[in-house]
Design a protein that fits this description.
This protein has about 475 residues and is an alpha/beta fold. It has three domains: about 5-55; about 60-80 and about 105-290, Endonuclease Chain A (Endonuclease, Chain A); about 305-470, Endonuclease Chain A (Endonuclease, Chain A, 2-Layer Sandwich), CATH 3.30.870.10. Helix content is about 45%, strand content about 20%. Strands 4-3-2-5-6-8-1-9-16-15-14-10-11-12-17 form a 15-stranded mixed β-sheet, with helices on both faces. A two-stranded parallel sheet has the order 7-13. Helix 6 (about 115-130) runs parallel beside helix 7 (about 145-160) and helix 12 (about 360-365) crosses helix 17. About 45% of the residues are buried.
Length: about 475
């Protein structure tokens, strides 16, 4: 006689696995990720479906779609956005791509300043906070409660005492990187702070993969700071210890700044609730001759805005491409775009960190580098400290800066921020920085990849198979 508990267990397993497979087939766009989840759900009874329920479902997209449409109505005065090319934004292929993908026109009259590492960026950010008179909006993935973190908290506290509106968003997972939470001290100081999608037990919420990875500081709707820089001592040289992370960050002055404010309000509304405030009617004066376009991206989007933009601008390159990123696990489509550019005679150079803070990311990307080297793509490893910089330069006028890495987590699962900058002088400065790093870096060769032991190659291949989930 069959044990009733065995029957009930089988029914529960079959039901959970069937539901997970059903959900995968209907909602997963990436067939490789869908197939991986289906195999996990079938081969790991109960554990597979539970893992998929916790980590594989995008719970953001449906809820956020309504808010995104509301934001689009504010910015673009349309009820439902369909990508399309505008005649007045089609001066060149590169200039039209961002609008076709995101619906956002280029904004002229901006000035972008590059800062190298926290030694340059933090003093500029703190000075801007000290000069704020109306509002300060700060978003960070990681906000450590160390020396530099406390300096930021002190500056925000002083601004609040002056009557400045201060709001801070810290990612719910990034907040856990510090044993002593900056959110605790911020609340103690009376700062309005919210954790973005924090993990919780009741009701259950473990959105490990749906993170707010944006780094953004907006001052009085007049200027903003964007890039890859988190807030923490590891980004600075100190007397007793050198920095452990290098990074790029940028100050943006000009009419593009109110769009950063609107993006912050959208994130704040999602995390805290409430209505989106009406955009400011203040006229922001032009500060330079750079045309910029903000491209937000996240799991709430129906279109992979940054991934599509990056693949498209790479496909439009005519002379040279520079890619600098800490995590390099491009999709098959992006790999094909890079290979095609190299085949057309475009010089493509990629700089990756020689010592990655996530060692498995280093293992995974080594499994695809030979595909790029085979077509003449130049890949080099930047020596330590770990480089967290994100930079894409195309030809002589285009740069893409911001928070996004070239890996599935960043381009498919995280809330990210990209800023296109069309400027020949800015492009030259970024190329100069890239070339300096390139000369200091070590080339990756076929011989090096081929000399890996069988065990190492198997390890790299196995980790590479998991790249959609890394």
């Amino acid at each position: 006689m069959i044990d009733i508990y065995v029957v009930l267990g089988f029914v529960a397993y079959f039901g959970a696995a069937t539901w997970a497979i059903y959900h995968n087939l209907l909602f997963k766009r990436d067939t490789r990720a869908a197939l991986g989840w289906i195999i996990i759900c079938v081969l790991l009874p109960f554990v597979g479906p539970i893992t998929y329920f916790l980590f594989g479902i995008n719970r953001i997209q449906r809820r956020a779609r309504g808010m995104r449409l509301a934001l689009l109505k504010v910015d673009y005065e349309i009820a439902d956005y369909v990508p399309q090319r505008r005649a007045d934004d089609a001066a060149s292929g590169l200039e039209s791509i961002g609008h076709t993908v995101s619906g956002r026109a280029l904004v002229a009259g901006n000035h972008v300043t590059a800062y190298y590492n926290g030694d340059e960026a933090y003093p500029a950010m703190l000075a801007a906070i000290d000069q704020a008179r109306k509002c300060i909006y700060l978003t960070s993935y990681i906000f450590r409660r160390d020396d530099i973190g406390r300096r930021f908290i002190d500056a925000l506290t002083e601004a609040k005492a002056r009557g400045v509106t201060v709001k801070v968003i810290i990612d719910g997972i990034g907040n856990l990187y510090s044993f002593k939470r900056s959110t605790t001290l911020l609340r103690r100081r009376g700062i309005d702070v919210v954790r973005f999608l924090p993990p919780r037990l009741l009701p259950p919420s473990v959105n490990i993969n749906l993170r707010n990875h944006r780094k953004m500081l907006v001052i009085d709707d007049q200027l903003g700071f964007v890039g890859g820089l988190n807030i923490g001592d590891q980004n600075m040289d100190r007397k007793n210890r050198l920095r452990s992370v290098t990074d790029l960050h940028f100050r943006v002055d000009g009419p593009i700044s109110p769009q950063l404010t609107q993006l912050f309000h959208y994130d704040w509304q999602y995390a805290r609730g409430g209505e989106l405030p009406k955009p400011s009617t203040d006229v922001i004066s032009e500060q330079g001759e750079m045309a910029c376009r903000l491209i937000p991206d996240g799991p709430d989007e129906s279109l992979d805005a940054l991934a599509t933009t990056i693949q498209s601008v790479i496909s439009c390159a005519e002379d040279r491409i520079a890619i600098m990123t800490p995590y390099f696990l491009p999709s098959r489509e992006m790999v094909s775009a890079i290979q095609s550019a190299a085949i057309r005679g475009v010089r493509v150079r990629v700089i990756l960190p020689a010592k990655n803070n996530l060692i498995y990311m280093h293992w995974a990307n080594r499994n695809l580098l030979s595909e790029l080297l085979n077509w003449g793509v130049e890949v080099r490893y930047q020596p330590p400290p770990f480089s967290h910089s994100k930079l894409l330069c195309i030809d002589d006028r285009y740069c893409l800066i911001g928070s996004a890495n070239l890996d599935p987590r960043s381009l498919r699962l995280n809330f990210e921020l990209g800023l296109e900058v069309f400027s020949a002088p800015f492009n030259r400065r970024m190329w100069h920085h890239f070339d300096q790093i390139y000369q200091q870096s070590t080339p990756v060769t076929f011989q090096e990849l081929a000399s890996r032991s069988v065990f190492v190659r198997l390890r790299d291949s196995l980790v590479s198979l998991m790249s959609p989930y890394l």
